[in-house]
Automatic annotation (TrEMBL):
UniProt entry tagged with the keyword Cell cycle: no
Listed GO CC annotations: outer membrane-bounded periplasmic space
Signal peptide (UniProt feature, chain positions): 1-22
Source taxon at top rank: Bacteria
UniProt protein name: Iron ABC transporter substrate-binding protein
Segments traversing the membrane: none
Length: 373
């Protein structure tokens, strides 16, 4: 590998600017219909032919919003036009795996692909026998070393966490957790229960919070000031809605993936900033279910989202692409753009590794003990 410095059917994506007008769309990317890149193995056309015989259907269990999927499905169906039906649900981070495990136990799961950014849940799922199909993507050598998160699990995107805040309610722009703590310290009573963070009892919340604290142990000083004013939420979408409505004035460890379109639609009321004392970047994993009903089409899809064509579509949908060569323009966001923004040393790449149970308990007890609730 190279190393970096460090629903169903086609969906329509509409991005709205703060003045309510349609945002400029990025230029359409050329898609080589039915053609594999020249560096793919010589027998790859057989995989394409096998996909044509699978009925044109694909089912994805994920925690990814439909607007994120829209350009990915559009371009995948341009490339392989016989795939006419793509069903992708939007479950909670942990529920993705719970449902697949429950269905696999009965021997009757419709899931072809699993997509989630719940690193702890992925590590547990992948360690279980018979859950994932072995597949080595021909795109692997074109990607950074961190692209393969676990055996047979690849990063579809690398999405940064942010501080989101209501510009009409917070007098200053927070640039990091230390900065936020300093703002709140000026009038703690005013901000009691007005800050939100992710619930560490869930895999997503635990992963990003633990990754930050482990990489920046000195941050506990700031956390001891901020957490007593905070309430936990289980999704970034809920956090963003409540910050925009004024129920919260700010939230930290809010995923940028749903935040980008929310900011664009807020008319300047909602803004985000990356955390200058350490921005957690969370990979969104994709893997093939062990008994995928449409294995050839599933493999084509994995290869596509990792390819140059697919990563451009990933970025267009609001997720953060990480393959070199994708331009951060027209509303697209890239890992390389994040490196430029905060500096490579300030990026904390969350790992897909199982944290021992005693460490999980120690961390969550400490975190929850500080929360205002």
């Amino acid at each position: 590998m190279t190393t970096l410095r460090l629903g169903t059917a086609v969906l329509a994506l509409c991005l709205i600017t703060s003045c309510g007008e349609a945002a400029p769309e990025p230029p359409a990317d050329p898609i080589a219909t039915g053609q594999a890149p020249s560096y793919y193995p010589g027998d790859y056309p057989r995989l394409i032919e096998a996909s044509e015989q699978e009925g044109g259907t694909l089912t994805i269990y994920s925690n990814t919003d439909q607007e994120n999927w829209a350009p990915i499905f559009r371009d995948f169906q341009k490339k392989y036009p016989w795939v006419t039906k793509i069903a992708a649900n939007n479950l909670d981070s942990d529920e993705v795996f719970q449902r697949v495990l429950s269905e696999q136990a009965t021997g009757n799961s419709p899931a072809d692909l699993i997509v989630s950014n719940a690193a702890q849940a992925w590590a547990d799922f992948a360690a279980r026998p018979g859950t994932l199909m072995a597949y080595a993507s021909p795109e692997k050598d074109k990607l950074p070393d961190f692209a393969e998160l676990l055996p047979n699990v690849y990063a579809m995107s690398i999405d940064p966490m942010s501080i989101a805040y209501n510009t009409s309610l917070l007098p200053e722009k927070p640039t990091g957790l230390k900065s936020l703590a300093a703002i709140l310290a000026k009038d703690p009573a005013q901000y009691q229960s007005k800050i939100t963070t992710r619930d560490v009892s869930g895999a997503f919340g635990f992963t990003v919070s633990h990754a930050f604290a482990a990489a920046r142990p000195e941050s506990w000083t700031s956390l001891q000031s901020v957490l007593p004013l905070a309430r936990p939420e289980t999704s970034s979408g809920t956090q963003l809605e409540k910050i925009t409505s004024g129920e919260y004035v700010a939230g930290f460890f809010v995923s940028a993936a749903p935040a980008y379109p929310a900011v664009a639609k807020s008319g300047g009321l909602l803004e985000i900033s990356f955390i200058d004392d350490g921005t957690v970047a969370l990979p969104r994993g994709i893997g093939l279910a062990a008994k995928a009903p449409h294995p050839a089409t599933s493999k084509l899809f994995v290869d596509f989202v990792l390819s140059q064509e697919g990563q451009a579509a990933v970025a267009e949908g609001g997720l953060t692409s990480y393959r070199e060569g994708i331009a951060a323009e027209g509303g697209r966001h890239t890992y390389q753009e994040l490196v430029t923004s905060v500096g490579e040393a300030n990026i904390i790449l969350a790992k897909y590794a199982k944290v021992p149970d005693d460490e999980v308990k120690s961390f969550t007890d400490k975190w929850n003990g500080l929360l205002g609730r």
